[in-house]
Amino acid sequence: MLQLLLMLLLLLWRYQWCRGRMISIGIARRSIVERAHRRRRHLQLLLMMMAVYLGHFAVAKAGRFRFLLIEVIQK
Fold first, then answer.
1. What's the pTM value of the predicted model, to 2 decimals?
2. What does the alpha-carbon distance between residue 32 and residue 23 come to, in Å, rounded to a whole number?
3. Signal peptide location in the record (predicted)?
4. What tens digit of pLDDT does each residue of 35-48 get?
5. Three-class SS of the chain
């Protein structure tokens, strides 16, 4: 399992390095812009997922709290 992870990391690192070299050679400025956009979109997606997760957690907490309140009131 660990070996697989390390291999993946190595591959990813090598891929990034090759891409970086290709960009530094000067394919196009557009690719850099595209990468920035992709990174921004990726961040947005990550933030959205986090928000959804936290929102779900908050709703679950609130639901539990309301349930407890109802129980207390009924008693």
1. 0.33
2. 8
3. 1-20
4. 777 777 777 777 77
5. CHHHHHHHHHHHHHHHHHHHHHHHHCCCHHHHHHHHHHHHHHHHHHHHHHHHHHHHHHHHHHHHHHHHHHHHHHC
Q: How far from 64 is each of 16, 52, 72, 73, CA to CA, in Å?
A: 46, 18, 12, 14
Higher pLDDT, 71 or 42: 42
Look at the chain and count its residues.
75
Q: Give me 13's structure tokens.
A: 């690192």
Please, are residues 31 and 39 in contact by the beta-carbon 8 Å criterion? no
Q: Which two tokens stand for residue 31?
A: 């690719």
